[in-house]
């Protein structure tokens, strides 16, 4: 362990401020082994067991509460499901909208997902994607607010309060992006509530998330009803997670593809040509080869973060042979799981074919692949994210040759992280050329 971590939070705060916390913890694993102390009451572990039994114990079987980090995560001042600490409270809350993101419901939404991918390709084809995104107030607010969250996670609250008053028009728009999003989404929730009260809200075979909130309120006890602020805040959380995090992952996968050798690019596109004879008709997900997607999620997953849990109250926990006292903050991180040399050969190399080699066992790699978090608190939107990213990725690669751009290189795409991850350059420029 880092010696002064036993009595101080400075080591972990320093690396959090640098947006390199996961890298710093990963380095400790390499030096000291699979269990390291990273602050006075925090222990990190890396489970190399192919069956991931310790990881499953911590994130599934024991049903542990989240750590104190999540207590500071609020959406525009309102509590949302990601920030709920107590496991039993979250389990009750999650049931309200879990069916919305079930594989069965996502399959019902697949036609809309494919239609969105086709629209995306058309905007790329006409070179209008950047202009469209700049003109859309919601997309611009999402982009701004994602960066505002990153900035707020680095700067102390008192300093953020001061700099937010800097008298610049663009800066002020940036600083109120959270309020802008909350207002827009709140207005949508309010309008739907008005329609519901008037009996004019359309009943849908595929109800929206907000309609599921309404259905919950119609059948639950009074004390369990969701307020207007609850519904707006939760909708805002889902929108941000679904757009911002997915966009970052998608950008990294395209960037990696653009930098693959020509023979690798041609092989991937040849498979897509077979699966998609019509370049504007995306097949069902089960038809699409996902080795590129898996490798992209391994190295650039949306949640590489140290995932905090509190050890049980009842007594010491055996953590890979070490006795951890009650209420200690413990956790692992997918960043290290995905770069574990015991499971992934040459882990820092982007190698699509590691998922296609019949001579290499896949079970251990699949068990260690956790880009959306772990256990009972895993990202609830993982099935939607997979469907949207794989569908759009197939549509883009089937229709375009992608080449690197001089504005983007390995330095500008260096991965940084707070809770999610992002490129240090905050952008990804690539050249798209329609395939003949």
From TrEMBL:
<dbReference type="InterPro" id="IPR002401">
    <property type="entry name" value="Cyt_P450_E_grp-I"/>
</dbReference>
<keyword id="KW-0472">Membrane</keyword>
<dbReference type="InterPro" id="IPR050121">
    <property type="entry name" value="Cytochrome_P450_monoxygenase"/>
</dbReference>
<dbReference type="GO" id="GO:0016020">
    <property type="term" value="C:membrane"/>
</dbReference>
<dbReference type="Pfam" id="PF00067">
    <property type="entry name" value="p450"/>
</dbReference>
<comment type="pathway">
    <text>Secondary metabolite biosynthesis; terpenoid biosynthesis.</text>
</comment>
<dbReference type="GO" id="GO:0005506">
    <property type="term" value="F:iron ion binding"/>
</dbReference>
<keyword id="KW-0479">Metal-binding</keyword>
<dbReference type="GO" id="GO:0020037">
    <property type="term" value="F:heme binding"/>
</dbReference>
<dbReference type="InterPro" id="IPR036396">
    <property type="entry name" value="Cyt_P450_sf"/>
</dbReference>
<protein>
    <recommendedName>
        <fullName>Cytochrome P450</fullName>
    </recommendedName>
</protein>
<keyword id="KW-0560">Oxidoreductase</keyword>
<keyword id="KW-0408">Iron</keyword>
<dbReference type="InterPro" id="IPR001128">
    <property type="entry name" value="Cyt_P450"/>
</dbReference>
<dbReference type="GO" id="GO:0004497">
    <property type="term" value="F:monooxygenase activity"/>
</dbReference>
<keyword id="KW-0349">Heme</keyword>
<keyword id="KW-0503">Monooxygenase</keyword>
<feature type="binding site" description="axial binding residue">
    <location>
        <position position="379"/>
    </location>
    <ligand>
        <name>heme</name>
    </ligand>
</feature>
<keyword id="KW-0812">Transmembrane</keyword>
<dbReference type="GO" id="GO:0016705">
    <property type="term" value="F:oxidoreductase activity, acting on paired donors, with incorporation or reduction of molecular oxygen"/>
</dbReference>
<keyword id="KW-1133">Transmembrane helix</keyword>
<comment type="similarity">
    <text>Belongs to the cytochrome P450 family.</text>
</comment>
């Amino acid at each position: 362990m880092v010696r002064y971590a036993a009595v101080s939070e400075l080591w972990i705060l320093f690396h959090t401020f640098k947006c390199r916390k996961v890298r710093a913890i990963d380095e400790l694993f390499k030096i000291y082994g699979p269990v390291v102390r990273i602050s006075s009451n925090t222990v990190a572990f890396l489970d190399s067991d192919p069956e991931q039994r310790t990881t499953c114990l911590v994130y599934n079987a024991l049903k542990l509460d989240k750590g104190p980090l999540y207590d500071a995560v609020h959406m525009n001042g309102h509590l949302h499901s990601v920030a709920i600490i107590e496991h039993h409270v979250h389990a009750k809350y999650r049931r309200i909208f879990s069916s919305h993101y079930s594989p069965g419901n996502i399959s019902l939404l697949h036609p809309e997902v494919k239609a969105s991918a086709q629209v995306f390709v058309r905007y790329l084809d006409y070179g209008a994607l950047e202009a469209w995104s700049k003109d859309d107030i919601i997309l611009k607010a999402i982009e701004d607010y994602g960066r505002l969250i990153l900035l707020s996670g680095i700067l102390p609250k008192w300093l953020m309060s001061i700099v937010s008053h800097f008298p610049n028009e663009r800066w002020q728009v940036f600083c109120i992006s959270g309020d802008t999003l909350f207002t827009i989404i709140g207005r949508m929730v309010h309008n739907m509530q008005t329609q519901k009260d008037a009996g004019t809200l359309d009943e849908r075979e595929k109800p929206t998330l907000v309609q599921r909130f309404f259905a919950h309120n119609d059948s639950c006890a009074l004390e369990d009803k969701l307020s207007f602020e609850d519904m707006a805040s939760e909708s805002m959380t889902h929108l941000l997670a679904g757009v911002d995090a997915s966009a970052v992952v998608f950008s990294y996968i395209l960037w990696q593809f653009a930098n693959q050798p020509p023979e690798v690019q041609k092989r991937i596109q040849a498979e897509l040509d077979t699966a998609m004879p019509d370049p504007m008709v995306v097949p069902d997900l089960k038809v699409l080869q996902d080795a590129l997607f898996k490798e992209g999620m391994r190295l650039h997953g949306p949640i590489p973060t140290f995932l905090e849990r509190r050890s049980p109250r009842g007594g010491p926990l055996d953590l890979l042979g070490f006795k951890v006292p009650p209420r200690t903050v413990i956790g692992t991180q997918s960043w290290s799981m995905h770069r574990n040399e015991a499971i992934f050969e040459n882990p820092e190399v982007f190698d699509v074919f590691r998922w296609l080699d019949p001579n290499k066992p896949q079970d251990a790699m699949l068990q260690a692949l956790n880009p959306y978090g772990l256990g009972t608190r895993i990202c609830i939107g993982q099935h939607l994210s997979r469907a949207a990213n794989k569908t759009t990725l197939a549509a883009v690669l089937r229709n375009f040759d992608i080449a690197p751009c001089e504005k983007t290189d390995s330095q500008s795409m260096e991965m940084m992280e707070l809770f999610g991850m992002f490129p240090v350059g905050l952008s990804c420029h690539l050249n798209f050329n329609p395939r003949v």
